[in-house]
Amino acid sequence: MFNLKTLVRQNILALQPYSSARDEFKGNDGVFLDANENPFGTLNRYPNSDQKILKQKLADYKKLSSNNIFVGNGSDEIIDLIYRIFCNPNQDKALTFTPTFGMYQVAADINAIELITLPLNDKFQINTDALTPYFNDDNLKLIFICSPNNPTGNCFNASDIEFILKNFKGIVVIDEAYADFSDRESWSKSFESYPNLIVTQTFSKAWALAAARIGIAYASKEIVQLLNKVKMPYNISQLNEKAAIEALDNRSTFESNKRIILEEKAKLIQELKTLDIIKKIYPSDANFLLVEVDDANQLYQNLVEQKVITRNRNSLVKNSIRITVGKPEENQQLIKALKNS
Ligand code: PMP
């Protein structure tokens, strides 16, 4: 049986979330002499520490309660916080399926946690038979599932994810950084059926706000409370919160940019198919394409010399290059550079 309290590190369970005198006062019309701020200027006050307005907008958009939403300084921060809540350094373990997003390993290393990596199969899907024996490891606290997966681009089979959610007694994190580009149903509300689930999403991709560093976690209110205990008091700057609120208020810009990116992706696939240099285009549910070429290291260099920067993923998937879908003229520049390579 899933039991949240037994999964949480003892020192974290005992913590109380940071609270300021202003949180207790609640109004906006006081004389604020409580936080050693400067009384002059426009960015002189500390921001609201619980991002109330942004969370309410997200709650309305997602048709969820704001108690089920956590806002992080990018989803990168959320990944780190999850390790810190659930994994005792030099004792507990996490698991993921490779090739995948590198931050699960980086955050594991920083927190002195062993990350078990199970290879995806030749269709880049999860091998659940290889995973099952690990369910008995009491020190395995977290499973990270990146879907759509970076760098392969595909979503994992819903039935495999469901199998993990049902059978793993620890926390399952589904990283949906690219889900806005996919037709597949998001898992962001599934914590209602699976209390061990945390879904992360981000404003960095489809919302065009990578510079603002806004990541979101959707989870049970008990897990959201734990994230609130561990985060830095002012993890989201007022400017960045405002940028995310404005993006949510201008949903038509988000929709039209997304449509252009998806149209450009379809065009790019057609054009890449005509080039001999491209051996394979892997199926993608994201805003990027993983392609196989004869010699990724050489091609990557040729493209850099023509000022087109892609991501050489040769070390993860042999002779592969990951290409982000850009603006129409950027994609044309890429095609031209590929033809010249
Ligand atoms: N998850 C995945 C799968 C990613 O590819 C990235 C960014 N490359 C992130 C998370 C990080 O997103 P954020 O900008 O929200 O930290």
From TrEMBL:
Domain of life: Bacteria
Pfam families: Aminotran_1_2
GO function terms (MF aspect): histidinol-phosphate transaminase activity
UniProt KW keywords: Amino-acid biosynthesis, Aminotransferase, Histidine biosynthesis, Pyridoxal phosphate, Transferase
Protein EC: 2.6.1.9
Pathway terms, separated by semicolons: Amino-acid biosynthesis; L-histidine biosynthesis; L-histidine from 5-phospho-alpha-D-ribose 1-diphosphate: step 7/9; Lipid metabolism
InterPro entries reported in the protein's UniProt record: Aminotrans_II_pyridoxalP_BS, Aminotransferase_I/II_large, HisP_aminotrans, PyrdxlP-dep_Trfase, PyrdxlP-dep_Trfase_major, PyrdxlP-dep_Trfase_small
Reaction it catalyzes: L-histidinol phosphate + 2-oxoglutarate = 3-(imidazol-4-yl)-2-oxopropyl phosphate + L-glutamate
Modified residues (N6-(pyridoxal phosphate)lysine): K205
Record-linked SUPFAM superfamilies: PLP-dependent transferases
Cofactor(s) needed for function: pyridoxal 5'-phosphate
Keyword Transferase applies: yes
Domain (Aminotransferase class I/classII large) ranges: 38-338
Stored PROSITE patterns: AA_TRANSFER_CLASS_2
Assembly notes: Homodimer.
Family assignment from sequence similarity: Belongs to the class-II pyridoxal-phosphate-dependent aminotransferase family. Histidinol-phosphate aminotransferase subfamily.
Protein name: Histidinol-phosphate aminotransferase
Native source organism of the sequence: Winogradskyella bathintestinalis
Taxonomic lineage of the native organism: Bacteria, Pseudomonadati, Bacteroidota, Flavobacteriia, Flavobacteriales
